[in-house]
Design brief:
It is a single chain. By secondary structure, the chain is α/β, with parallel strands linked by helices. 60% of the residues lie in helices and 9% in strands. It contains 37 helices and 17 strands.
């Protein structure tokens, strides 16, 4: 019962002890309390109860009872870090027990061997236990033993054997009422899915296990460890670090298992390293190594030493001693049969290369490279990274490019199994080293065309295929509706009283976590990664007039790849770090200019724009010709107001996340019918003043909103609440509600959404536009069959993104581009609301005349008054895409 219904078992045991039981029964009760405290509470209390249970079993003169308690005590002692005493308790337990009881003791000792990382001994003990348990028709303990054997197989990389045992165990669990063990089986299936490379399935199963544990009211420290491993593989290292640190604090708060604390610290150390926090990684790994050593857990200690070495290298402490340390770790991991062994060999080879020890590097890298032909995706990528470094050391640019291509192909296949665009974006970080190696090799030997090809190979790849549509999941839809309502209520409370509403905000954050969790479960549908980028096709589409400027960053310096007139030319510009600082100065200047009275800052902002041009375009600025320009910046420069740069100020200028994305936008056909949608949300300082004027301008084409008056346009579908072909629909006031807005946006030719925008740097896919019933978030847009062909977003922060992965952007604009939107006008900085109105009216005038978004925006800027506020407003807007 202690695993089927832990709370009830604890209560029953305490009641039994209060009834003056016999020594035999009292031994059982103390053992149950000891198990509960061991797994869910204070380890010190667990040991006290289990010693009392052992003594009572001896008084009852029951050798079988004593053997059983000794096994439970042995597990508790090992979890408390007292390995030698724990193993001694098992020796006595095996000697005291016989038959069925001894099989249960052997199973628990096998579990301890697994905890200690001694997998050979674990397999031997469980091999001896399973036949006896089966012969005794002990369903529960047989299922436990099969689950344990599967877990050991996974630790050794034997996924197929693990799957067979997990399947057999699950069939047995279905015949029992052991709810805790059933939850554990679901958790184990999640681990197996992760080891086989299926991240969405792993997240789904681990979340299901967490729900089951929550119903039982039991802590889930092992589940946290496994979930953190999956989060790291998905590129969510910062979240993994936060979860692991929180679990350590919770474990310390209840005086929990020392073994679990060490494992959580190891996970936290790995997460901190991946999150770019080497000092935090160093601190966590050092404590983990010390704890594992004291617990005599050599397998785990060796893994912790690997992370410790990685953290030292990340803090700039490469040395010959670390080469030897990494090599020794690699040998020990290989002896254990641990899948992490190639990582350690790669690390040793990388440090040796940095020191110029080419012979040592080749030896270690050759060992690591063996993993490129088999195993899960990330292990194969480790092997291809090692092979690429070998080729670079040998001076073979061709070998580098081939290894990088093969490694990135592996990661492409892995990414496309991920349905959520966030996971796809973050997963690219695992290919950043391969992409950088290929770009350097291209720079040395391949010329500008090859460098452009490799720059495109790993830039904005999330936009290469539409995201998987969220499933018709009623729980997800209910959560999104509740989230919207709560967000609206919280905003209303802040507006009315000027103070936040903590209870509403807590529930809003809970719903955010639920929505995000369920979207991360989605599997990808598109095989492969679509068409490969073709430089020749790009040059043909550009023709003689258009120039595309792609900025590649190699070793911190900006390289300008100028495409047009049938060729690609390369120019060196400035340092990326200096450009980022200058871009922040420009942003600050534009924020000041959004308010009247800051005119004196205009020359300073213009001078900063000239400095930005030197850093970002360098000598290429003199070779742009006189025609339209498309800028393709790296993710870290997404907030640059490109129209401020002197060479681009009077241009027809558009921005694109990648050349491939621009080509797709250029080839996207507008939808038939040309429906236009004008939306005005609440809370705007200007009141969305341009919308009524645009509504009057389009009055001849306007379709009445639901509840309005007038005859519907010819061709409008009856009864679906959506405007017909060629119509204009205006949604404002109470009609600007998310469900109605989404219906009208789906398949529209043009959408103008005047609504308060909020960018969420902490969770970019919850960036939103405020509607009458709450926020319209990025996840909502992903439910559209086809987003509008052109979208105009006239409010602040609508063109802000989070830069994640290798060179990916997450935000509102990048969510729209793969969904059928070919062009977006959005704002990269806070703007003056009143000054936006004439800009938007002039922009629509150009669109009415048949201009593209970029052409209309250029003319709209020129039509504005010449004061500082209006100039800053024009510079803050950019045209994205190619429509």
């Amino acid at each position: 019962m202690v695993f089927a219904a832990p709370g009830e078992a604890l209560t029953r045991a305490e009641e039994l002890l209060g009834a003056d039981p016999s020594p035999l029964h009292a031994s059982v009760a103390h053992q149950v309390i000891g198990i509960w405290q061991r797994d869910f509470g204070d380890t010190r209390l667990a040991l006290a109860h289990l010693r009392r249970a052992r003594d009572l079993a001896a008084r009852a003169e029951s050798a079988e009872r004593e053997a059983d308690v000794l096994a439970t005590l042995g597990v508790a002692l090992v979890h408390a870090g007292r390995t030698r005493a724990g193993l001694a308790a098992f020796e006595r337990g095996v000697a005291r027990g016989s038959g069925h009881t001894r099989a249960r003791v052997l199973f628990r000792r096998a579990y301890v061997w697994w905890v200690l990382g001694r997998h050979g001994e674990a397999l031997e003990d469980v091999r001896r236990a399973i036949p006896v348990l089966r012969q005794a028709d002990d369903v529960i303990w047989t299922a436990r033993a099969l689950t344990l054997r599967a877990t050991v197989h996974l630790a050794l990389g034997s996924v197929e054997r693990a799957d067979a045992d997990f399947t057999a165990a699950e069939l047995l669990w279905d015949t029992t009422g052991q709810e805790h063990d059933k939850a554990d089986a679901v958790e184990s299936r999640g681990l197996a899915a992760f080891r086989s490379g299926d991240v969405p399935a792993a997240l789904r199963l681990l979340d299901e296990a967490a729900e089951r544990y929550a119903k039982l009211g039991t802590p889930t420290f092992m589940l946290t460890i496994r979930r953190c491993e999956v989060l790291m593989a998905a590129g969510l290292a910062t979240e993994a670090l936060a979860e692991a640190d929180a679990a350590v604090s919770a474990l310390d708060g209840i005086g929990g298992q020392s073994t679990r604390k060490a494992e959580l610290l190891l996970v936290a150390a790995r997460a901190a390293r991946l999150a770019g926090e080497p000092q935090t990684s160093l601190a966590r790994a050092a404590v983990a190594v010390r704890l594992f050593a004291g617990q005599r857990r050599t397998w785990y200690e060796t893994h912790a030493r690997l992370v410790l070495i990685e953290a030292r290298v990340a803090t700039g402490h490469g040395s010959g001693r670390l080469v030897a340390d990494a090599a020794a770790v690699a040998e020990r991991l290989a002896a254990f049969g641990a899948p992490a062994a190639p990582e350690a060999s790669l690390l040793a080879g990388r440090i040796a290369l940095d020191l110029g020890w080419t012979a040592d590097a080749e030896r270690h890298l050759a060992v690591a490279a063996r993993s490129r032909h088999g195993g899960p995706p990330l292990a194969r990528m480790t092997g291809w990274a090692a092979q690429a470094l070998r080729a670079r050391a040998a001076g073979s640019a061709r070998g580098v490019l081939e290894a990088c291509r093969r490694g990135l192909d592996v990661l492409d296949d892995h990414r496309m199994t991920l349905g959520a665009s966030e996971l796809r974006a973050r997963a690219t970080a695992q290919g950043a080293e391969l992409a950088a190696l290929a770009q350097r090799a291209s720079l040395v030997s391949g010329g500008p065309r090859r460098l452009l090809g490799w720059s495109e190979r790993w830039r904005a790849t999330v936009l290469s295929a539409p995201p998987t549509r969220p499933p018709a999941d009623p729980v997800l839809l209910t959560a999104m509706t509740a989230f919207r309502e709560l967000a609206a209520r919280a905003e209303e409370a802040r507006t009315d009283g000027g103070r936040p509403a903590p209870a509403l905000e807590r529930e809003q954050r809970r719903l955010e976590r639920e929505i995000r969790s369920r979207t991360l479960h989605m599997r990808g549908e598109a095989p492969g990664d679509g068409d490969r980028f073709d430089v020749g096709r790009l040059l043909r589409r550009l023709g003689d007039e258009v120039r595309l400027v792609e900025l590649a960053v190699l070793d911190g310096r900006v390289h300008v790849l100028l495409c047009g007139q049938g060729r690609v030319r390369r120019f060196e510009a400035g340092l990326l770090a200096e450009a980022e600082v200058e871009a922040e100065h420009v942003q600050a200047g534009l924020r000041r200019l959004a308010h009247p009275g800051a005119e004196a800052r205009l020359p300073l902002v213009e001078a900063a724009g000239a400095r930005l041009q030197r850093l970002l375009l360098g000598p290429a600025a003199a070779h742009l010709g006189s025609g339209p320009v498309v800028v393709v910046p790296p993710g870290r420069l997404h907030r640059v107001p490109w129209a401020l740069l002197p060479a681009l100020r009077e241009r027809v200028l558009s921005v694109s996340p990648s050349a491939s994305s621009w080509l797709r936008a250029r080839d996207t056909a507008p939808p038939p019918g040309g429906r236009q949608v004008l939306v005005r949300g609440p809370g705007l300082a200007s009141g969305g003043a341009e919308v009524p004027e645009l509504s009057d301008r389009y009055a001849g084409r306007r379709t009445p909103s639901e509840g309005g008056t007038g005859a519907p346009q010819a061709g409008a579908p009856a009864g679906d609440g959506t405007a017909g072909a060629g119509a204009t629909v205006v949604l404002e006031g109470g009609e600007a509600r998310v469900p109605r807005v989404l219906r009208e946006l789906d398949g529209a030719a043009l959408a103008h959404i005047a609504a308060h925008g909020t960018f969420r740097a902490d969770s970019p896919l919850f960036s939103s536009l405020r509607m009458a019933d709450g926020p319209l978030i990025v996840h909502d847009f992903e439910r559209l069959d086809r987003s509008p062909y052109r979208i105009i977003l006239p409010c602040c922060d609508t063109a802000r993104f989070a830069s994640v992965g290798a060179d990916e952007l997450l935000g509102l604009v990048t969510a729209l581009l793969p969904l059928g939107t070919a062009g977006v006008v959005a704002c990269t900085a806070p703007v003056n609301d009143a000054a936006v109105v004439p800009l938007m009216l002039a922009l629509h005038k150009g669109l009415d005349a048949g201009l593209s978004l970029a052409e209309a925006l250029r003319d709209a800027r020129a039509a504005l008054p010449g004061d500082a506020v209006h100039q800053a407003t024009g510079w803050a807007f950019s045209a994205f895409g190619a429509a």
